[in-house]
Amino acid sequence: MGRKLLIHNDKVPNIHSLEVYRQNGGYASVEKALKTMTPEAVVEEVKKSGLRGRGGAGFPTGMKWSFLAKPPGVERYLVCNADESEPGTFKDRYLMEKIPHALIEGMITSSYALGAKTSYIYIRGEYFYVARILETAIEEAYAAGLLGKNILGTDFSHDCYVQVGAGAYICGEETALLESLEGKRGNPRIKPPFPAIAGLYGCPTVVNNVETIAAVCPIINMGGDEYAKIGIGRSTGTKLISASGHINKPGTYEIELGIPVEEFIYSDEYCGGIINGRKLKAVVAGGSSVPVLPAELILKTDKGEPRLMTYESLSEGGFISGTMLGSGGFIVYDETTSIVKNLYTFARFYHHESCGQCSPCREGTGWMEKILHRIIEGHGKPSDIDLLWDIQRKIEGNTICPLGDAAAWPVASAIRHFRKEFEAYINHPEKIKDAMPII
Amino acid sequence: MPKVTIDGHTIEVPDGTTILQAARMIMDKGEGNGENIAPPTMCYYSKLKTSGGYCRTCIVKVSKGSEKDPRPMPKPVASCRTNVMDGMEVQNITSPELLEARKGVVEFLLINHPLDCPICDQAGECHLQDLGYEHGLAKTRYDFKRRTFNLIDIGPYIKLHMTRCIMCFRCIKVADQLTNHRYQGMLFRGDASEISTYIEKAIDNDFSGNVIDVCPVGALTDRTFRFKSRVWFTKPMDAHRNCTKCSGKVALWLKDNEVLRVTSRKDKWGEAEEWICNECRFEKKDIKDWVIEGPRHIDRHSVISANHYESLAQLKLDIGKQQKQLNGKS
Questions:
Q1: Which tens digit of pLDDT belongs to each residue from B183-201?
Q2: Contact in structure between A329 and A86 (CB atoms under 8 Å)
Q3: Does A167 reach chain B within 8 Å, measured CB to CB?
């Protein structure tokens, strides 16, 4: 049984209420940080913990915090990215829905560390009921003196607001999120400047994922060094994984980073094996945008070592034979899955969600979708596979924000690992109806 | 003052200069060994704040970040929005993989473009035409239906032909920065997005006509000039008049003594030297309204001016060359 730090008491009745949350040790990190630590000491603990951004990129949080510009007399903001829009990812929803105070507590502690007087939780439109849960939690926190003026009798004052977005995938990109939060169209900004210098309303801003902010509480409670002992190498602590697809027990799991992928898929503690005793075909390990890996490569690296649930092990072998931990959206495909149809679903999604600012993504995503549609309809041409490869190659790296890369990687990996399947679709269109679609 | 090297040409530039501006400075000094090392631009416009970064045609490879941090940048960067650092080394036309990436961008810009140059007023002075000629493929690989839109009249003088639009956002920046009220913006998302005045609300501002000059393609055209003449049959003349709203310094496009069109004077990078008002642009179509200064020098680098289409033999040769490159690759 691995250690749980974030959702260890998710089964406690009424844990969403402040009273029960505090009875279970809640808001200890706020007490500890505000009363006994300086903001710098909090940042130092987070640095020591080795915590890395849980939204997908895996950038060290402590380092991100220390980049925050601190010009005198200028407001600083903490923005929580709760626009969990990566297909296959639903861990933040689980956390906010079950234990909303875990996020609010993290927001207060993190804001103290950053010297932010105001913070925002930007939540996607589809999570409107979660926004209500958070708002209730914030009201409770205000009433208990945990938010507002002079929190717990200290000099630190802080306000926290929930802002509901309209549900665009692109608003999960931090600068598009800030635009949307400012009331503008959610288009990514051209960087530099980075949000740490000029973010929300042109002020220095830190944008962190829900899980990252919630993880600050156990780090402060147990100390950064202790937290860093969990996990392997530079992948420290615990991580929420949203497991979905053809598994016996889909759901949100908290794992200690470093458990083998095989254990995660097959042990009864987590996914519980493949549904109906079928065989594993492929896995998308970190949300729809990371490369899909066939069973033999997700269980073992190309060096024959068992693959572990860590940032490093999953990306072992680069994109040739590896993938990414990403946001932890773990999608499992059994042997009946059609990778090509699944890819079409993804391509359709990225086409729909492209913001339209830069040409490669705006035009390329639609082009890829049209070609994939033609292939699954049985009208594919033999040259389509190479054309798809060339299009994704010309999108990747040439766009303003990572949406272009996110659209390109699934296409590249599907062709790289499942080229035969594309050929089968194109050469034997009469057999297409046999292949089972997913979803 | 940082020193930057672009395609082997070193120049010292003021702080805050972008790679693109530095490349243009090198060209302005007459260096470049006869090659144009200034990256092509479709959305950047030096006179419009926050323009650039969208079209991605000006991407360059930064092979050395700076003297302090010599690591190369992992991805191509938009030269119009990236400032130079001291000791930076940039590759534009000297990097084959960069040119390949740019070719990709041009292909993306063209897949939904109608390629209706034979009936487009912009033909002959169209930046996309030049770009397509210089960096495009001989044959399209896109065999789906292209997107189309209905034509929209933006007020009495301007026609919006969204089908031709490449989403450079220059007109939005003009509407934002030059005119008092913003009536123009972007609707929808992805490849369904369009420039719109929202319920076709007329732009009735004295300087709104400048959106026509900034448009790199034929998406925004002058309704007083539409289908009057091909631009290469008109004579450009520098002229001025006393205008209370603008400088009154314009370029007239004449056929015999008839003023077919009035535009701003454009510099060698295709950018307006000064904005002109709608009265000068649309209402002064009598040659007596103007004091003619003399013939306007036009930088004849465009596909048509350079006579690429003049000789059928040359055209076949050019296409054959591109076709060979295409076949050699696949």
A1: 778 888 888 888 887 655 6
A2: yes
A3: no
